[in-house]
Amino acid sequence: MGWERAFDTKSRASAFRSAAAVTAFAALTIAQTPLAQASGADCLPQLHLVQSADGGPARAASPAADEPAIYLTPAEIEEIREGSACKRFVRQILALKKKLSETGLKTNFYDIDIIPNNELVKGKKGTYYTVYLKDARRRRRLQFPDARYVLRRTRRLRASLSKFVRDVVAPLQSGVRYTLYVRGRASARTMRPRRQVRRQRFDQVTYLPETSADVYDANQTRTVEIGRRYDNETLPFLRAAFLQKTVADLIPFAAPKILESKVSDSRARREQFAELLLFVEWK
Q1: pLDDT for 138
Q2: Can you give the pTM of this predicted structure?
């Protein structure tokens, strides 16, 4: 338990720092230029920098009212003004694109595999990936206990998410359109109705419906009413909602959308999961 607490404290601090950096660079837009040709001149700073009275880090406020203030060091501000920050992010984006397109990503915290469908969500053509989050300590893909929709060790989930934010979301946020989705799953095992967890209660879940096999409609939403008790039919939606909330708490500017979630035909334990999906519109 001591290890978990220490790990969680460190990972959360790092995650919040990563989230702050991502939000800061989200205010830097890259002109509609192929990434391979982009340079520092293509970055358009849109941060309002206000130097603190005590001479400390400046306050960087994004034009978007719902984004938090971020405190940057003088060196970071200079990077933004010179365009070197943008150049670095362009290099990171290109390296990330190469890794994802060639072999995917395999780490101790998550695996990323490409989905062979360039329009998983109707009207959004691009590249889709499945992100398999892992238990940051055991280095195995996260699975839910039978009939449950809340993980026992959410610290390990947050640790893996923070690593995903640093490695993938931060480079994408600087100049590539992307969207996150979540999708829940449950095995075909039967279960008696259970009460929802008090602190993780979802009375209803709104999702994008599946219109055909593995194709979802972004232009309409449906809602499943759950109430105090849930059963195996609503369990996949609760797992998706739990993962959505966990991601949104860490990176609110990239809160994922829920895709229609289903019960598998299989009774295998490997079907007890919720997965994160990443859509990227590479330039």
Answers
A1: 80
A2: 0.74
